[in-house]
Amino acid sequence: xxxxxxxxxxxxxxxxxxxxxxxxxxxxxxxxxxxxxxxxxxxxxxxxxxxxxxxxxxxxxxxxxxxxxxxxxxxxxxxxxxxxxxxxxxxxxxxxxxxxxxxxxxxxxxxxxxxxxxxxxxxxxxxxxxxxxxxxxxxxxxxxxxxxxxxxxxxxxxxxxxxxxxxxxxxxxxxxxxxxxx
Length: 182
Hints:
The protein is mainly beta and 182 residues long. It contains 3 helices and 10 strands, in the order H-E-H-E-E-E-E-E-E-E-E-H-E. The protein has helices at 7-15, 48-59, 154-159, and strands spanning 39-47, 64-67, 74-76, 79-90, 93-103, 112-122, 125-129, 132-135, 140-142, 169-181. Strands 1, 6, 7, 8 and 10 form a 5-stranded antiparallel beta sheet that branches. Strand 6 (112-122) and strand 7 form a beta hairpin. It starts with 6 loop residues before the first helix and ends with a strand.
């Protein structure tokens, strides 16, 4: 079935040397090879003062959390990966958490995202999540990642070699590899 073309449109098309986008017909191009990118590193520099505020808020009775700016997320196999921190009330104080947060590609209906490995680091502290599956938008990680005790102690944070930089920030890093399914 051919749709009728208005006379003025037909006339303009006949005057063109080449139809718009005729040289960029994607379905005529050969299939692109799969991405050779096998891992992505996401990094976020969080002021120690911000972690302290989260911790104190949680100790007072409410869960507190904060995610990195969306502009700093990194993409691996169509999934955007970001980081978040939080604090949970625990035994008269609070623990400080560190999570990886996947966001599905546009149109993703919130199904499971599976990663083969996520190595989470902050200074000398390293933890690894082996194959896991989680919902897009949810954090996945460790509720007491830093293991700094339940009472805020800034001196302990600063004394843990390499955890807090000279600029007063904690560098959080996650290396995500092998997104298996989206």
